Amino acid sequence: MVTGGAGYVGSVVAAHLLEAGHDVTVLDDLSTGHREGVPAGARFLEGRVQDAARYLDSSYDAVLHFAAFSQVGESVADPAKYWRNNVGGTMDLLDAMRGAGVRALVFSSTAATYGEPAVTPITEAAATAPTSPYGASKLAVDHLIGGEAAAHGLAAVSLRYFNVAGAYGDCGERHDPESHLIPLVLQVAQGRRETISVYGDDYPTPDGTCVRDYIHVADLAEAHLRALEATLGTAPAASEAARPAPDGAAPEGEALDARPHVRPGEHLICNLGNGNGFSVREVIDTARKVTGHPIPEILAERRPGDPAVLVASARTAADRLGWRPTRADLAGIIADAWEFARRTARTKES
Ligand SMILES: NC(=O)c1ccc[n+]([C@@H]2O[C@H](COP(=O)([O-])OP(=O)(O)OC[C@H]3O[C@@H](n4cnc5c(N)ncnc54)[C@H](O)[C@@H]3O)[C@@H](O)[C@H]2O)c1
Ligand SMILES: O=c1ccn([C@@H]2O[C@H](COP(=O)(O)OP(=O)(O)O[C@H]3O[C@H](CO)[C@H](O)[C@H](O)[C@H]3O)[C@@H](O)[C@H]2O)c(=O)[nH]1
């Protein structure tokens, strides 16, 4: 079961799981997702995770849990909405999983659990001091899952994504309202916005704008597949693990580690990023090159709660899941998002 599989990341992961031969059921209430985003081949249940007990039974091997609200600014304005859905919804889901005997879970956590980091790159041992109710709600869920695993023998992985971007086939980013930098920059290139606002250029970074670690959504999907298989105990052995990346591109890097495994009762937490930071201005400049559009920018106030630099150490994901990103190139990430944005606009017009 993929909760939130009508949303951006969940739909890409669902598509990748189907390609790997898994049977996928999407549970989504379409509060921020799109029915047409659910990949062909997945069964679709329109419903809430709060009602998961109605849908889950022992025919499911595992749950990948993406369903959540994820707008940082909105969470500051309406924190209860975030605690209720993200934490309350997950409590109901965990109860339903226990009732149905489903004992494997992969959860969408976030770099927002760390807050302003003391040391870069950020490892999973870093202090967690979220700067928004969104980040706090996700950290609370990580604690919930850790307790559930220890008490009831769940095998669980929390994947802490840094800045997800790019697209995969027909699945891409269509948040409404959109708050993420790359899709907003591309809306300017499409003529849907006049300018992009740069939120502050007086940060302690080389060009004064915030630095982030952008990870391709297809790399993220492969990490979910590996996490799922590790919790199920079906992960490929080292000799088989160098499988092609989602679109058939050859993987980079050295031979992968021994068979990944997450045992019942264990809660593994892994950061997912490339370990490379790009500033807001570098992102905008790269998008200018990719799109051929001047993308005018204006300087705006800092956005409250934005740390200056967020860059991941994904060493744990490499060591425990045998995962390596294969699409770290920023221009490639933006080019895939650009292709998706143009295709979506053409579909709307026709
Ligand atoms: N996009 C990012 O950069 C990013 C970074 C870190 C973590 N995450 C996490 O990844 C997950 C997916 O993010 P996304 O960008 O795809 O968001 P999204 O809004 O596109 O997808 C979330 C999906 O969950 C569904 N949903 C929400 N509450 C639900 C509920 N109670 N019951 C059933 N369905 C519900 C929505 O309809 C939507 O389809 C979220 O948990 C988010 O916190 C995202
Ligand atoms: O119009 C914009 C939008 C964003 N930014 C800047 O661009 C950077 C990236 O902002 P995003 O909104 O794209 O992403 P965030 O870094 O705020 O947050 C994302 O990544 C976080 C971890 O890094 C969490 O996972 C969170 O859930 C997810 O939304 C930030 O410095 C932001 O200030 C702008 O300058 N102008």
TrEMBL record:
Domain of life (superkingdom): Bacteria
Required cofactor(s): NAD(+)
Biological processes per GO annotation: galactose catabolic process via UDP-galactose, Leloir pathway
Top-level enzyme category: isomerase
Pathways involved: Carbohydrate metabolism; galactose metabolism
UniProt-listed Enzyme Commission number(s): 5.1.3.2
Pfam families: Epimerase (PF01370)
Positions with biased composition (Low complexity): 235-253
Keyword Isomerase: yes
Stretches the record annotates as Disordered: 235-256
UniProt GO molecular function: UDP-glucose 4-epimerase activity
Record's keyword terms, sorted: Carbohydrate metabolism, Isomerase, NAD
Catalytic activity reported: UDP-alpha-D-glucose = UDP-alpha-D-galactose
Matches recorded under InterPro entries: Epimerase_deHydtase (IPR001509), NAD(P)-bd_dom_sf (IPR036291), UDP_G4E (IPR005886)
NAD-dependent epimerase/dehydratase domain segment(s): 1-230
Family: Belongs to the NAD(P)-dependent epimerase/dehydratase family.
Annotated PANTHER family: UDP-ARABINOSE 4-EPIMERASE 1, UDP-GLUCOSE 4-EPIMERASE
Subunit description: Homodimer.
Listed name of the protein: UDP-glucose 4-epimerase
Organism: Streptomyces benahoarensis
